[in-house]
Amino acid sequence: MTIKSLLFVPGDSEKKMAKAASTGADVLLLDLEDAVSHERLPLARDLVQQYLKSHDRANQQVWVRINPLNTPLSLPDLVAVMPGKPDGIMLPKPMNASDVRQLDHFLSALEQREGITPGRTRILPVATEVAGALFQLNSYAGCSPRLAGLTWGAEDLATDVGATSNKKDNGEFDDVFVLARSMCLLAATHAGVQAIDTLTVDFRNHEGLQADVRRARRQGFSGKLTIHPDQVAIINAGFTATPEELQHAQRIVDAFAQSDGAGALQLDGKMIDKPHLTQALRLLATHKGQ
Ligand code: COA
Ligand code: MG
Questions:
Q1: pLDDT, tens only, 20-30
Q2: CA angle, corner 196, sides to 62 and 14, nearest 5?
Q3: Atom 26 in ligand 1: residue holding the nearest Cα
């Protein structure tokens, strides 16, 4: 299943967790990391476990963002939440795929303890939060069958490199962050998993978000992180093919089917060849039954 929207929900907020269920987000990402203070972490672990146990997941997955593996907080986070059988774990600040492999081992052990089908719990690394990770993004290919996708972060990367902002004066991401974004897309493609775009912090600006989603989808991202309920519908719609797009894809497929094996054809006065056919077939496959 393609995940379009992943809504962050602070793990210590019962109110927001209750509200999150009605947002239509494909995934609720209960946060135990940056959105929760150290003092409130024990409370958050309990609330997250209870929520996992009680939330109806027929139409919505529930994932948990744990603390980074190089902190003493990550294992207690996992031990606390695995009894709730989360659908996946978001892994912040990994250096490379060896962090995913380590988490994979932890999950295998805890799945045994909890009677969860081995390998059921997926992993989503936030692959660009520390500078050194950018040099090892190729490591994710083949690292674990649990790998659900790759996403990227601009806030922590800014802190890591000592940038006072990740934006240029005109509001667009500055060079380092555009690079991180592109590298995330390439690394996800290389690993054969979904590329999931980072969040848009400016949550009252709906037109800006629409433009961000359009651009992300055009580039090859198939989902996006979000921090506010109002962003969810915009993201879900933005990553859904329009009837016109599906019709056009079907026309490309039909044109090749009727072409007696020609490799290049014309459609509406434009050349189409193999890459267009591949793209059309992929679009139709991912949006089947939509
Ligand atoms: N999940 C669920 N509910 C949320 C929510 C979220 N991420 N963000 C806001 N809401 C709720 C609010 O509680 C409020 O509910 P109410 O109408 O019942 O009072 C409603 O949606 C409207 O919220 P609003 O007043 O517009 O925003 P806010 O000031 O309450 O919250 C943030 C703004 C940024 C603090 C909040 O969106 C948030 O906590 N986002 C997630 C932050 C996070 O997890 N960060 C870590 C990852 S980067
Ligand atoms: Mg962070």
A1: 999 999 999 99
A2: 30
A3: 228
Q: Is 16 in the pocket of ligand 1 (CB under 6 A)?
A: yes
pTM of the predicted structure, to 2 decimals = 0.95
Q: How many domains does the chain have?
A: 2
**114 and 248 share one domain:** no
- Both 190 and 163 in one domain: the answer is yes
Q: Are residues 165 and 43 in the same domain?
A: yes
Give the CA distances from residue 131 to residues 124, 143, 152, in Å, rounded to whole numbers and listed in that order.
18, 20, 12
Q: Is 126 in the pocket of ligand 1 (CB under 6 A)?
A: no
Q: Which atom of ligand 1 is nearest to the CA of 33?
A: 46
| CB distance 227 to ligand 1 below 6 Å | yes
Q: Which of 36, 67, 227 to mutate to test the pocket of ligand 1 (most atoms within 8 A of CB)?
A: 227
Determine contact, residues 185/211, Cβ cutoff 8 Å.
no
Q: DSSP readout, 242-278?
A: -HHHHHHHHHHHHHHHTTTT-S-EEETTEEE-HHHHH
Q: Do 225 and 279 have their domain in common?
A: no
- Which residues are CB-neighbours of 136 under 8 A, at least 6 positions away? 95, 96, 97
Q: What is the domain-level CATH number for residue 23? A: 3.20.20.60
Judged against a pLDDT cut of 90, whether residue 260 lies above it is answered with: no
d(Cα 27, Cα 236) in Å, to the nearest integer? 11
Domain extent, residue 169, equals 5-238
pLDDT value at 290 more than 80: no
Residues 100 and 215 both lie in one domain: yes
Return the number of other C-beta atoms located less than 10 Å from residue 12's C-beta: 23
Q: Is residue 49 within 8 Å of 86, Cβ to Cβ?
A: no
Place of tokens 């240029």: 168
